[in-house]
Write a structure and sequence with these properties.
With 541 residues, the protein is an alpha+beta fold. It has 16 helices and 20 strands. It has an eight-stranded mixed beta sheet with strand order 1-9-10-11-2-12-20-13, with helices on both faces.
Length: 541
């Protein structure tokens, strides 16, 4: 699958281009950096370095991949909030279920997942004959241990709050009890919460699963070594249960600058890399003479978006006039022009992409209207006697992030607000400040999953960890709870249409743009599926 050609003129304002650069770079994941140095592995040696394969070229059986950042961690029950974590995690781990973009969830490590007649529990049967990298057998007890770890996780636990108990029924069977029916549970178990790690590795004394998950997974590749801010190596799992891995080893190189990833590819130092900017794709094609004989570009469906969170529990963001003024001040049409073929940004305004079957259009058109934004700010300040003053927190992990923060601030200052930009060095620090409500406005990236419950409930339901805006509305909670419990697709679609419309009216958060993460690589690589992250299970040469 190749990205479409990007032809035709594009109007580019300085602010729009800067904002777009951040928005698309953000879709490739956000670097949290690393506080540790040196080698991290199970034996104290980096076998990839010793073998001479790390850092460039394609030695026998080695694939070198360029990613935008170190992962924030490799423990799925911890901070997994980056595309790099998913790319490496999907080489190391399998999930209980699998959820393709274009179909219902299917069993993966689970052999089956069956809902009870009263819809208050699911029975999961574990696939037989699967072993972890350390030789431990996958069984029902391992599934229970991992689900309980996820339920206790500060980040993931709230998203599993509908689970009241996980019970082992026999060696291969667990029952997942619920407080209320939950139609989307199979889709949830296809994500981070459904990744299963070895109980032996979890219990190992001194094992740091976030930095060195030695023996922990069941995936096609096993962890070897991680040199922070440089590279991470995984090696072929000869006992993989789901087919033959395509390479003897894969080396992930961490290159935060997208131009550096392109240059490394053109120099032959990496054979595949992630790209967030359409311009990078253009340059890769131009170097290939546009023929596609040496370079392939895979474009997954539009699924990620930049979200601007507003702290609605404090002034001035507790007033919907200010929130609406902030949206109307942003020229999303200019953003869409600047994006070209890489995504879109417009006033369809929903956290669901427009090609999702769950998307519902607004009941009335919205448009860029800085004059109306100025009037709303003037009304607010006249009524309250307060000036609209705040700080926008932006990641400083690349120049594009910094540029975009200034672009947003410029648009808001232009309509009468007083906005400063605070650069934050890493994603973990930013997210923690948002969870603690120690922020005014901040930008993050949200992903879309096949079932809307997995994103809408966390973003809008009161009390959820990732309802980072602190938004609380009884109508919204009731709609989300009713949609979560319903098994009727038509009823759910109607309820989610109401959710989207209420979100447009209340604006607890703003949408920047939707986009995708391109995979750019050698034309002779096969199985480069449009996943949005590195497709470890299928890629081969």
């Amino acid at each position: 699958m190749s990205a479409p050609p990007r032809n035709g003129p594009r109007r580019r304002s300085v602010a729009a281009v800067a904002a777009v650069a951040l928005v698309l770079a953000a879709l490739a994941g956000c670097s949290s950096g690393s506080s540790s140095t040196g080698l991290v592995d199970g034996a104290g040696t980096d076998t990839a370095t010793e073998g001479g394969a790390t850092g460039g070229g394609s030695a026998a059986g080695t694939l070198t991949v360029g990613l935008d950042s170190d992962p924030p961690g490799l423990d799925p029950a911890g901070n997994f909030l980056a595309i790099s974590a998913f790319s490496i995690g999907n080489a190391l781990y399998d999930t209980l279920m699998a959820a393709p973009f274009d179909g219902p969830p299917q069993p993966r490590l689970a052999e089956s997942l069956t809902e009870s007649a009263d819809r208050l529990s699911w029975t999961l049967v574990v696939r037989d004959g699967v072993t972890f990298h350390d030789g431990t057998a996958l069984d029902a007890a391992a599934v229970k241990l991992n689900l309980d770890r996820q339920r206790a996780s500060q980040l993931n636990g709230p998203s599993l709050s509908s689970i009241t108990d996980v019970t082992v029924l026999d060696e291969r069977t667990v029952r997942i009890a619920l407080s209320a029916p939950w139609t989307a549970l199979p889709a949830v178990l296809a994500g981070t919460q459904g990744m299963v790690l070895s109980p032996t590795a979890i219990a190992a004394a001194g094992q740091d699963l976030a930095r060195a998950p030695v023996g922990a997974g069941t995936g096609p590749y096993r962890f070897v070594a991680w040199v922070p801010d440089d590279h991470l190596t995984v090696a072929r799992n000869d006992a993989y249960w789901d087919g033959e891995p395509g390479f003897e080893e894969i080396v992930f190189r961490f290159l935060p600058d997208e131009n550096a990833r392109l240059a490394a590819y053109q120099a032959g130092d990496v054979q595949l890399f992630t790209a967030a900017l359409g311009e990078t794709v253009d340059k890769a094609r131009e170097a290939d003479g546009g023929s596609g004989e040496r370079v392939q570009v895979v474009e997954p469906p539009v699924a990620g978006q930049t979200v601007l969170y507003l702290n609605t529990v404090k002034a001035p963001f507790d007033d919907v006039r200010v929130r609406r003024a902030m949206l109307l001040a942003l020229d999303l049409d200019a953003l869409a022009e600047a994006i070209g073929g890489s995504g879109y940004a417009d006033y369809s305004w929903s956290v669901l992409p427009k090609d999702s079957p769950w998307y519902a259009p607004p009941t009335e058109p919205l448009r860029h209207d800085p004059d109306q934004a100025r009037r709303l700010i003037a009304d607010y300040e006249a009524d309250t006697g307060r000036q609209v003053t705040f700080t926008y927190k932006a990641l400083s992990t690349s120049q594009t992030f910094a540029d975009a923060g200034r672009a947003y601030a410029a648009a808001w200052n232009d309509v009468g607000m007083d906005v400063d930009v605070e650069n934050v060095a890493d994603l973990t620090t930013l997210v923690l400040s948002m969870i603690l409500r120690q922020y005014d406005v901040a930008g993050l990236v949200a992903g879309y999953y096949p079932d809307p419950d997995t994103v809408l409930f966390d973003l809008y339901h009161s009390g959820r960890t990732f309802n980072l805006s602190g938004f609380s509305d009884p109508r919204m909670d009731a709609l989300l709870e009713q949609a979560r419990a319903s098994a009727d697709p038509a009823e759910r679609k109607g309820l989610y249409a109401e959710v989207q419309q209420l979100a447009r009216e209340q604006l607890p958060l703003l949408n920047g743009n939707f986009g995708t993460v391109y995979l750019v690589g050698d034309a002779d690589l096969t199985g480069v599926e449009p996943t949005g992250y590195f497709p470890a299970r299928t890629i081969a040469r």
